[in-house]
């Protein structure tokens, strides 16, 4: 049975391009504006969405996204409010793949089955729990799949063959490939050594690889697609735009629109 990611990648393959997936923190700078931001990203041409659910200790995120999380929490964002926003997005855009980024603490605290049931009811396709060790994820994956939610795992640049095989077996929708060690951020240049990881994932039969961490300009997208990725995720660069224009919604929407269109144009194969 196909899912929204399968259908997206099939469509993109026919267009000879990869996916551009912007990331934003739900609730940043506030719940109402956040919904406007997400709708703007979709209307500008985002192929899928990666949305952060605010958590007070986002260990995988760099300072830009951490600041966005603080703004969202100070504005009163809670998981239930975030899921309400995402439900509205799903109702308006029934086919776009929607993934969330979260952490173990809120997942475990809510109870695995209860958490994934809420996720499914919100219209979310996939969950990336950034600090969930793949070696300890069997119960987590079982709960996700029982609720028809795709569990996404990170393939680090130093992944050995055993870890790569485990990731390939467990992850669903797509495989998140990081360009480097460390936390999220915007880089001037993106390393291309991750092509070895992509080759290993493809050999292991993993879902399509999508590259993240440091993707902030069109050249990074072009390099990622050229290295064999099926798409690229940009987070900190998007959040910087939101932060810079958070007091002027019209300017923010214009800047986000231009950024998404420019990054999406760089996803063409052999560009």
Task: Provide a brief overview of the structure.
With 271 residues, the protein is α/β, with parallel strands linked by helices.
| CATH architecture group name | Alpha-Beta Barrel
Computed structural class: alpha/beta
**pLDDT averaged residue by residue:** 92
Overall radius of gyration: 17 Å
Terminus-to-terminus distance? 32 Å
Largest sheet: 9 strands, parallel
Number of strands: 9
Determine the fraction of residues in helical runs and give it as a percent range.
40-55%
Notes on the protein architecture:
- The chain has 271 residues and is of the alpha/beta class.
- It has a single domain, classed as TIM Barrel (Alpha-Beta Barrel).
- The chain is built from twelve helices and nine strands.
- It has a nine-stranded parallel beta sheet with strand order 5-4-3-2-1-9-8-7-6.
- Strand 7, helix 9 and strand 8 form a beta-alpha-beta unit.
- The two termini are 32 Å apart.
- About 3% of the residues have low confidence.
